[in-house]
Design goal:
The complex is a heterodimer of chains A (110) and B (114).
Chain A: E1 9-13, E2 18-23, E3 32-38, E4 45-50, E5 55-56, E6 61-64, E7 70-75, E8 84-91, E9 98-100, E10 104-109
Chain B: E1 5-7, E2 10-13, E3 19-24, E4 31-38, E5 44-50, E6 53-56, E7 65-68, E8 75-79, E9 88-95, E10 104-105, E11 109-113
Parallel strand pairs in B: 2-11
Antiparallel strand pairs in B: 1-3, 3-8, 4-5, 4-9, 5-6, 7-8, 9-10, 9-11
The chains are: A mainly beta (110), B mainly beta (114).
């Protein structure tokens, strides 16, 4: 199964964009990249996913490199409530199985 | 619409005892997943139900763990007998349709084996 690598922690100023990187160099051609986050004591919450193309929704943007070996999650205007652990995940092809990495703890500061 | 609910939220049991965790998925969701995170490790997949059938149980650690989903609605995960290394947070998730849809997670059950 493809693995993901993320920095263990990052800080971001409130109101600024948070850019969270992820490496997934062993990803297969039909495996999706998913991002979830976990706010303390809650279950993981879906943010966004993509295969090849960049994606945007009301929460975030996902930028996937052309070779698909890495991606970046962008929170355009981080708020204090965005403080959480962010997981970059590969979804195993043709299954619903999610492969979690260690995650990045994002601290949004006033 | 109610989300994925898990019971209990916390459980403390002694080594050797039995514990049963329950997950109620979102109504109508055929896919149900169990995951867990043990101390210091990443969240790991345990198994996947499609309705009442086990689609993938490759992540089940050993035969002390038994998952069921009779009738294709709620699911239970029994640990018998529990060992110290089973301590962690057990998450349940559900979704509908193809695998390429978001999975909704419950808040988890924190299991402590002493």
């Amino acid at each position: 199964d493809a693995k993901t690598t993320q920095p263990p922690s990052m800080d971001c100023a409130e109101g600024r964009a948070a850019n969270l990187p992820c490496n997934h160099s062993t990803i297969s051609g039909n495996e999706y990249v998913y991002w979830y986050r976990q706010i303390h004591s809650q279950g993981p919450q879906y943010i966004i996913h993509g295969l090849k193309n960049n994606e945007t929704n009301e929460m975030a943007s996902l930028i996937i490199t052309e070779d698909r070996k890495s991606s970046t999650l962008i929170l355009p205007h981080a708020t204090l409530r965005d403080t959480a652990v962010y997981y970059c995940i590969v979804r195993v092809a043709n299954t619903g199985k999610l492969i979690f990495g260690q995650g990045t703890t994002l601290q949004v500061k006033p | 619409e109610a989300g994925v609910t898990q019971f209990p939220s916390h459980s403390v049991i002694e080594k050797g005892q039995t514990v049963t965790l329950r997950c109620d998925p979102i109504s109508g969701h055929d896919n149900l997943y169990w995951y867990r995170r043990v101390m210091g490790k990443e969240i790991k997949f345990l198994l996947h139900f499609v309705k009442e059938s086990k689609q993938d149980e490759s992540g089940m650690p050993n035969n002390r763990f038994l998952a069921e989903r009779t009738g294709g609605t709620y699911s239970t995960l029994k640990v018998q007998p529990a060992e110290l290394e089973d301590s962690g947070v057990y998450f349940c998730a559900s979704n509908q349709g193809t695998e390429n849809t978001e999975a909704f997670f419950g808040q988890g059950t924190r299991l402590t084996v002493v």
